[in-house]
Structure formats: C-alpha cells, structure tokens
Amino acid sequence: MTRYLQLAEQIIEGVGGKKNIRTLVHCATRLRFKLQHTPTGAADQIKSLDGVMTVVESGGQFQVVIGNHVSEVFRAIESSLAGTAAVSDESGPGAESGDETSSSASLLARFIDLVSGIFTPVLSVMAASGILKGFLALFVALNLLDPQSSTYQVWFVASDALFYFFPMVLGYTAGKKFGGSPFLTMAIGGALVHPTILSLSEPATFFGIPLTLINYSSSVIPIIFSAWLSCWLEKKLYPRLPESVRNFTAPLICLIIIVPLTFLVIGPLFTFLSHLLASGYQWIYDIAPWLAGIFLGAVWQVCVIFGLHWGLVPIAINNLSVLGYDTIIPLLLPAVMGQAGAALGVFLATRDARLKMLAGTSVTAGIFGITEPAIYGVTLPLKRPFLFGCIAGGLGGGIVGLFQVKVWSFGLVSIFSVTQIIPPGGIDFTVWAAICGTILALVLSCLLTFLFGVPRNGQTQETVKNG
C-alpha cells in the first residue's frame, strides 16, 4: 500500500496539487481527472512516474493510465483528497460541477465527457450483471439449469436488477454529473419504474391531460434529460429560496414539476428518439454489416487511445433497451483479442525478461477485456504489434459482422462476451461465427507479431515502459 500512497502523492503533485483537482473518477484502467487548469509539462512529468503507463488528454479530462492497479491508486488519492471538493459527499446543487467543461472544448469532447461521467461509475457492475446473464444463458443452453427453477430465478434477478432499475441508477450518476442532488434525480428515476405507474391502465390522465404509458425499465435517454432538467431547475431555485427551508423545498418543487413533466412530455419524446436512434443505427448496420465489422474491429483500439470509444457506449445500451440486443459489442471482441494476441506474440518472441513479464500480464488482462496494459506497455511502443492487432481485429470483426452476431446483455468486451452472444433459443451459428472471428484475431495477431513484430537483436526499444 505504501507504493500506491507514494505514487498517489506524486500524481497529485504532477496535476498541480489538491486545489487544482475539480473531480476524480476511475474506470477499469484510468484515473480521470477534471482539473481547474492543466499545468505546463504535467503530462510528461506524470508519464515518467514508475507505475504510470501514459497520460491521455481527451474529452475535457486529464486521464492517467495506470492499468490493473488503478483502484488501489484511486483509493490512495481519494484518502489524500478527503474533505476536498473533488470527493465531497455534499448532496446539494453544485456539490459536483463535473459538467462544466471548458467552453473551448468541442461538442464531441463535451459529449464524451458527459457519457463517461454518467456511465463510468456503474460500468463494472453493468459488466458483472451482463456476464452473469451470459452464464445463465450458457447453463440453460447446455441443459445444466432449468429456467423455471427457483435457483435460476434467483440468479436471473441478480443479473437483471441493475438493468430493470436502470433509470434509478442513471438518475443518481447523471445527477452527480450535472451538479445537482443525485438522490433527487434518483427519486425521479424511481418514479419511472414504480409499480403503481407500471400497473396503470389506459386511459390515464394527469389533471385531465392524457398520459402516454410506457415501460421505462432499462431505459437510458429519458432519465438523463429529466435529470439535467431537474438539476437546472434546482440550481435556479436554490439561491432564491429562504436558507432555512431551501434544503427540502427545492427538491419538493423539482419533484412536483419534473416527475409529471417526464411522464407527459420528456418520457414519450425521448423514448421516440431512442427508438429512432436504434432504428437509424440498425439501418446503417444492415447496409454492410461485414464492413462495419472490419471498420470497428480495426479502429476500436485507436478510439480507446483517444477516449473516443465512449461515444458508442450509449448507442449499445440503447440498442439493448429498445431492440433487446446489440450488434456493436460483438464487433469489438476481435479488436480486443487482436491486441491480446499481439501481446502474446511479443511474450513468445522477446528475449527481454522485463518485456516478457509485462507482455505476459498484458495477455491475461487483455483476454478479460482490459487492453490498456497491452497497448501502452507493449504493442504501441513497438508499433508493429499494435498495427498487427488492429489488422487482425478488422479481419475477425468482418467475420463477426458477416454473420450479424448479436449480444443479448451488456458487459465489458472480454472472453465472457461469448456467453452473452448465446441467443435465448440456444447456441446457433452466430455463436460459432463469433468464436471463429475471435480466434482468428487472436491467432493471426500473435503469429504476425511473433514473426515480424519484435526486434531479433535481443534489444527492446527504450519506449517500452513497465506499467
């Protein structure tokens, strides 16, 4: 733990000290800072630290790539920042103003910052729930579990609860991102999936105005906009109300206004837009799914480097909510395994003991969906292995797209994604197509890297850095 505390202090110093940190969250491999300003030379200084793979500035965030030990480093920094605004537990408006992206940032940067801020906190639980759904589908397909049994039902509820109550979860994270009271926006999300609303029968009205009854379970877009509107209204109300009563009157007014408005206007409108988005994506995908597979399989890891991969996350989740399946995630599996295979090729070819150890751990992480250690520590510094991983990912993605493989639950793109590809009707040709495309990417990138990707003079480029 001492090692992580030391690294945490060095990172805090590198980003300009505690007072320069607005917010801090982490994903599977990265510390994601929002800074007051980026100090000159901060990226180079932090890159040089032992335990840091690289630094990426994207989407208004200063991202420090740590790798598999990111949660330990995050906890060390969090303990050091305790009591500051960056980790404040305040629940009033403005407690966390993570939505205040620089006005000079592009719309794409703002969108990526918004998506990552809302979905990052819940991503690991989403992945776990999706993996459990996949295993249940596998057990049923192999006749190891009866879907009518109480054992199956208990595990199904465990895997489905997060998605069923997704509006509540996203209400909380969106409320924090938009700088309002997260428990207030979570309550608005709870109203969307409340049993009383779900049991209403047509015609339902609110003061004589007809209500459009929609099942908002697992929905994504309506609650995000409702949370934004609630936070906006709360911020407007807070300074205008008497200090002695505003802590409860501001949320009260928001509940009175936003919940009916959501059922009357926001919900139906954004549900329609959600269906439009899913239909539009599916129309584009159906034109040439094999081409979509080649493209995404080849460029996905490049998107990861620049943080652009967050742009597809809400589309994939929306597809699952609207269509019941998604075709984006399967196309990414060969891309992930392509980098894992390239790292395996380096492991087999290199004579450098330090690089061999790093490549070996990167292969394991890559197979389980974490490719940053392979990219920043092994394949990208050597250049050719990264390129071979992208080429193999494109070819494997083409096969997956050609057979229009789907996933039926959300999860981190990893070896476990194969279980999520199993359709409700059982194992079919799409599962075997996904396996073939994935194995092709893994084996081809490994073979190309082993033959052509590593210098044969026994020397390793100095740019290869131990994360």
From TrEMBL:
EC top class named in words: transferase
GO-annotated molecular function: kinase activity; protein-N(PI)-phosphohistidine-sugar phosphotransferase activity; protein-phosphocysteine-trehalose phosphotransferase system transporter activity
Listed GO CC annotations: plasma membrane
Keywords in alphabetical order: Cell membrane, Kinase, Membrane, Phosphotransferase system, Sugar transport, Transferase, Transmembrane, Transmembrane helix, Transport
GO biological process: phosphoenolpyruvate-dependent sugar phosphotransferase system; trehalose transport
Active site: C27
Principal location: membrane
Compartment(s) where it occurs, according to its Swiss-Prot or TrEMBL record: Cell membrane
EC numbers, comma separated: 2.7.1.69
Bilayer topology: Multi-pass membrane protein
Gene3D superfamilies per record: Glucose permease domain IIB (3.30.1360.60)
Residues in PTS EIIC type-1 domain copies: 113-466
Limits of the PTS EIIB type-1 domain: 5-87
InterPro entries: Glu_permease_IIB, PTrfase_EIIB_Cys, PTS_EIIC, PTS_EIIC_1, PTS_IIB_1, PTS_Sugar-Specific_Components
Annotated transmembrane regions: 111-132, 152-171, 183-201, 213-233, 245-270, 290-317, 329-349, 355-379, 386-409, 429-452
Protein's UniProt name: PTS system beta-glucoside-specific IIBCA components
Upper classification of the organism: Bacteria, Pseudomonadati, Pseudomonadota, Gammaproteobacteria, Enterobacterales
